[in-house]
Design a protein that fits this description.
This protein is an alpha+beta fold. 36% of the residues lie in helices and 18% in strands. It is globular. The structure holds zinc ion. Zinc ion (ZN) binds at residues 361, 438, 440-441, 443, 456, 458, 461, 463.
Length: 703
């Protein structure tokens, strides 16, 4: 380990943002104590539920810390009751989505064992020392990148397969998507590449890339993404590689599986990191080599303090035995290697009281319980509400009005209630009764296909009507400034507005009666102005299941006018085999759209919007300077990220394609362009640099 690297790591130690605190040990205290077998069953059920959300849908409901607590409790119970233990290898999870062919790993891809306290980490350190007879070993301590795990196979230096962790034995083959990751070479540099190597790494988004992407999206009127890790996971599982290129993903390599010939394997973890960098791959740079536990712990604490200074998201550090021969001696268990341990930083928590539990009715009728809290400060923000997601979760936690609860905020995830402090509960607090009827319209609730999700099925439910209108006027829809939930409630109560089209029939007098003369004038103009928004905005504003701005834009692009969509038939959207006919839209989404758009109520909504003037496609972008032009991007541009360049091209009416062919109008080449540049030259396609692209966007240049 070089001293310079050590200095780099030391530099920011003084900056204190978040200290590593000892995690509160989760006490299992419920009204009637379940038997270990019952509790194990409950935990497995909950973990399976959250695994599905985390791995397959990239949309977790609970924080990683809360999830880890469930897993630790299960592991501890299984340790105490080995007769109840589950099959080996089930601790890894499973991210296989069913949307990709699966591929077996040559060497199983395990997860890491996790620790949360100094004592746990020290116990691991001592265990390794004992089983190696206190041999002279060294340790590598490195940041734990927070993204999605990937295994990259290079054969004779060429990237041949990219596979997700899956269940540890086989995962989703996402090779085309991995090739779309910027900064991941498809060919290794140098003449010391092995015949075959399975490199293990993490796909993630830097804080900067994430922030940038959200700025671009917000400018384009799209909903910002909520969490970088979930975005990385979701992006790697997109079925269209062209879409992946628009997500500024990064990757880091931190380990390996198969390596042939084995004799050329590095002898130390630290050498591996250097080797990987030599091949031109993104390697772990911020690592340290340490020897004794006192130093290990001091460095772990230092890393906890400076974790926000790293450009990438991290949720902890990983401690690995440096010597590969010792790693091999220690071996692996069913879930994880015996020579490595993750230490997870704690989330920020606070204790507060539940003042009330309210039930919200969503625009599709789904009931979401929300805990109204006594305001409490967590990590600089005041938290007054926490979502309980669905009635199932409410029941699981058994939250009652008046309860003292532990609230947690991790990253950008909505605050969560992680535990109810039942020992502080007043004996007489009644159980929160599950609602039987919709709080807004008193229609009996129905339980959806997914247990615990209850919905009001009355399409005229005033709460749903209001939510739908709120969505329509929001920035995800036609973006009418000056209409908020309060005004919508008044408009609905006065029976003036039921569906979006009604907004355009409001007279100045109607508005004046509700908001006063002065505001009415401006609002009336705002509503009229929104009619000239691109037609996809109106479509996105209808809240059709699975149709967000991006999908709405694709539908509008394919079918042109809103009017055409009012006459759409199922077979225009899907083939008889149920395959999507809409470019860039997946099969399941296309089927959901077909089902929704062919319903009379939805059709009437579209006809209504057409009737009030939405329609002859007013998408101004389509008259932009790049209208109808196909552009291919290759290499790194000096100032624009791939996503930014794409957004600009699309906003100017152009289309970004991934392959160069005779339909390509321009190739924009940056630094280190790939084979696309050669293809462009061969086909005689006009090649531009970033300045050339900017000139084109400004309406100059080109042919
Ligand atoms: Zn209702």
């Amino acid at each position: 380990m070089s001293t310079s690297m050590h200095t780099v790591l030391r530099r920011c130690v003084g900056i204190v943002r978040l200290s590593v605190v000892v995690l509160f040990t989760h006490a299992v205290a419920v009204a009637s104590t379940p038997t270990p077998a019952e509790r194990i069953g409950e935990l497995r059920e909950q973990i399976a539920y959250h695994d599905n959300l985390y791995f397959r849908q990239a949309a977790p409901e609970i924080s990683d810390q809360a999830y880890d607590r469930l897993k630790r409790e299960l592991r501890e119970l299984e340790r105490l009751h080995p007769e109840l233990a589950g099959p080996a290898g089930t601790g890894i999870g499973d991210d296989r989505s069913g949307r990709f062919p699966t591929r077996a790993h040559l060497v199983p891809m395990l997860s890491l064992e996790k620790s949360y306290t100094a004592a746990e980490l020290q116990a691991f350190f001592a265990r390794v020392a004992r089983s190696t007879d206190n041999a002279d070993i060294t340790w590598v301590l490195e940041p734990k990148y927070d993204g999605i795990a990937i295994s990259l196979t290079y054969e004779n230096g060429r990237l041949t397969h990219a596979v997700t962790r899956g269940n540890g034995r086989e995962g989703d083959e996402v090779t085309a998507n991995a090739r779309a990751i910027r900064g991941l070479p498809v060919e290794l540099a140098g003449d010391d590449v092995p015949e075959l190597v399975e490199l293990r790494g993490e796909v993630y988004l830097t804080h900067d890339a994430f922030a940038h992407l959200n700025v671009t999206r917000t400018k384009a009127g799209l909903e910002p993404f909520a969490h970088p890790r979930n975005l990385a996971a979701g992006s790697l599982k997109l079925t269209d590689p062209a879409e992946v290129t628009q997500r500024p993903l990064s990757v880091v390599i931190h380990g390996w599986g198969a390596w042939e010939p084995a004799a050329t394997q590095p002898v130390r973890q630290a050498d591996f990191n250097a080797q990987v960098a030599g091949w031109g791959l993104p390697a772990v740079e911020e690592y340290l080599v340490v020897e004794d536990f006192a130093t290990v712990w001091a460095e772990v604490e230092a890393c906890g303090e400076r974790r926000w200074d790293w450009p990438f998201p991290t949720d902890g550090v990983v401690l690995k035995v440096n010597e590969v021969a010792v790693q091999d001696t220690l071996g692996v268990n069913a879930d994880a290697p015996n020579w490595a341990m993750a230490f997870k930083f704690s989330a920020e928590q606070a204790i507060t009281r539940v003042r009330a539990i309210t039930l919200q009715v969503g625009r599709t009728g789904q009931i979401t319980p929300v805990a109204e809290l006594e305001p409490v400060n967590i990590g600089g923000t005041t938290i007054a509400r926490a979502s309980l997601h669905n009635l199932n979760r409410l029941r699981q936690l058994d939250v009652r009005i008046g309860d003292t609860v532990r609230v947690e905020k991790a990253g950008e995830i909505i605050p969560q209630i992680v535990a109810v402090l039942t020992e502080r509960r007043d004996d007489h607090l009644p159980i929160f009764p599950l609602p039987q009827v919709c709080p807004a319209c008193l229609t009996p609730l129905e339980v959806g296909a997914q247990g615990g999700i209850m919905s009001c099925t009355n399409p005229d439910c005033p709460a749903q009507v209001r939510r739908r209108l709120e969505h329509f006027v929001s920035a995800s829809g036609v973006d009418i400034k000056g209409i908020g939930p309060a005004l919508i409630a008044k408009l609905v109560d006065a029976d003036l507005v039921q569906v979006p089209a009604d907004l355009y029939r409001l007279s100045r007098e109607h508005l004046a009666a509700l908001v006063g003369e002065n505001k009415a004038e401006k609002l009336h103009a705002e509503i009229a102005r929104s009619r000239s928004a691109p037609s996809w905005r109106a479509l996105a504003g209808l809240g059709i299941p699975r149709v967000g701005p991006a999908t709405a834009e694709r539908l509008a692009r394919q079918f042109g006018e809103l009017d055409a969509l009012t006459r759409i038939r199922s077979e225009d959207l899907i083939t008889t085999e149920g395959k999507s006919r809409v470019a860039g839209v997946g099969d399941a989404t296309a089927r959901a759209i077909a089902e929704s758009l062919t319903q009379p109520a939805q059709r009437r909504q579209l006809q209504g919007l057409h009737a009030v003037g939405f329609g002859p496609t007013s998408d101004s972008a389509r008259q932009g300077p790049l209208q109808g032009r196909r552009v291919v991007l290759t290499g790194a541009l000096p100032t624009l990220s791939r996503a930014e360049a794409t957004a600009l091209i699309v906003a100017a009416g152009g289309e970004v394609a991934t392959r160069v062919n005779r339909e390509t109008d321009y190739v924009v080449a940056g630094e280190k362009p790939g084979s696309k540049l050669a293809a462009a030259r061969q086909l005689g396609i006009q090649i531009l640099d970033e300045a050339g692209l900017r000139a084109l966007l400004a309406g100059h240049g080109g042919d």
